[in-house]
């Protein structure tokens, strides 16, 4: 991770920062409930098939990564002198993100024998690396072809290739092809501890996740076009978003929307909704100039990896700080919940209040960083 640099920020696409900030704030909220035993259904992932608002957070972020690739590389992509630097930078960022993800999984025990190898940051790293390299070496037409090839081939592989040891193709949690690949390559010791037999960020599902990022690249490329005015861009992008969402719902009929499997229907459905969301924000903020509501989300949007990494570390530190409550030893997070929230709210609202407080604390920290133009980049 680079040292924080204090400098005048470059001009940015405000709607992209806002959209990223909304996504990161939502990610912080759903990842840090006051109690995992008491969560409102929209703030939980779907049990298997289906899509809750929480299931939109990760694909939205990968979509945003794709749009950001265009805005950070487009002006330098055609410059041969810059091409090698961009290539090295993409590889470097991918490696750093992956290492940060492993550190997050290792902390605080650092048990390498049983560390979970996949993870959210690891998926971001792999997807960014592959998509960034594709963007540097392929044009928009080829990227579109690659996008559809991934969705079609992934559907065929998951629904027609027999799973070794099972004998038939299926989309069940423990017996689908992706789960078999995860167990075969990573072994159960290095998979998601809640299942130990499959991983929601598994190896095979990284491939359709790349398609989500490519979706963002294609939308970002259209946003930067000079031959379209703002009204035309908004009309086209909104139409693409609606059509992709509908396409996802149609594909859902035979290849269900499923985050853990990152199905082709999930890519289309979430990509469509992300396009609609970004388009609406683009029209409101960058075109119409409505910016009063944006500041809260912008401060989350300019330091996303910092928030995700540290917001995952801090609760683990708190779980190891033991204090006394009513004569009994409890971890510091439980102490705060039982002291400031549980006596005054129902269990589910106490949990939500704790999560919202955590988001607000992060807002204060990020606001101070924003005021000083401190952006920590990977």
TrEMBL record:
Protein source organism: Mucilaginibacter arboris
Keywords carried by this UniProt record: Membrane, Transmembrane, Transmembrane helix
Segments forming domain Heparan-alpha-glucosaminide N-acetyltransferase catalytic: 12-230
InterPro entries: HGSNAT_cat
Protein name (database record): DUF1624 domain-containing protein
Transmembrane segments: 56-74, 86-107, 119-136, 143-163, 203-223, 235-254, 266-284, 296-318, 348-370
């Amino acid at each position: 991770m680079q040292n924080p640099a204090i400098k005048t920020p470059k001009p940015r696409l405000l709607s992209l920062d806002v959209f990223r900030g909304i996504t990161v704030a939502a990610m912080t909220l759903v990842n840090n409930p006051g109690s995992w035993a008491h969560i409102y259904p929209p703030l939980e992932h779907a049990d298997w098939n289906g899509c809750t608002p929480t299931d939109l957070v990760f694909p939205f972020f990968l979509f945003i990564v794709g749009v950001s690739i265009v805005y950070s590389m487009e002006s330098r992509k055609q410059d041969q002198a810059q091409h090698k630097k961009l290539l090295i930078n993409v590889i470097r960022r991918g490696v750093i993100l992956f290492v940060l993800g492993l550190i997050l999984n290792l902390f605080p025990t650092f048990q390498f024998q049983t560390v979970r190898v996949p993870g959210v940051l690891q998926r971001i790293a792999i997807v960014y690396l592959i998509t960034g390299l594709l963007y540097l070496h392929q044009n928009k037409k080829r990227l579109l072809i690659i996008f559809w090839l991934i969705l079609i081939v992934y559907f065929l592989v998951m629904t027609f290739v027999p799973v070794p040891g099972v004998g038939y193709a299926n989309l069940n949690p423990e017996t689908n092809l992706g789960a078999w690949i995860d167990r075969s390559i990573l072994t159960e010791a290095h998979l998601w501890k809640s299942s130990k037999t499959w991983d929601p960020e598994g190896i095979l599902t990284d491939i359709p996740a790349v398609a989500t990022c490519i979706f963002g690249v294609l939308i970002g490329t259209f946003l930067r076009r000079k031959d379209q005015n703002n009204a035309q861009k908004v009309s086209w992008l909104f139409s693409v978003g609606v059509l992709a969402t509908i396409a996802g719902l149609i594909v859902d009929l035979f290849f269900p929307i499923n985050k853990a499997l990152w199905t082709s229907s999930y890519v289309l459905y979430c990509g469509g909704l992300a396009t609609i969301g970004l388009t609406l924000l683009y029209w409101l903020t960058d075109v119409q100039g409505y910016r009063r509501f944006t500041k809260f989300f912008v401060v989350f949007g300019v330091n996303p990896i910092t928030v995700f990494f540290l917001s995952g570390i801090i609760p683990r530190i708190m779980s190891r700080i033991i204090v006394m409550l009513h004569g009994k030893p409890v971890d510091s997070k439980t102490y705060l919940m039982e002291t400031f929230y549980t006596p005054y709210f129902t269990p589910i609202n106490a949990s939500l209040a704790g999560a919202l407080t955590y988001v607000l604390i992060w807002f204060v920290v990020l606001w101070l960083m924003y005021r000083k133009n401190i952006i920590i980049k990977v």
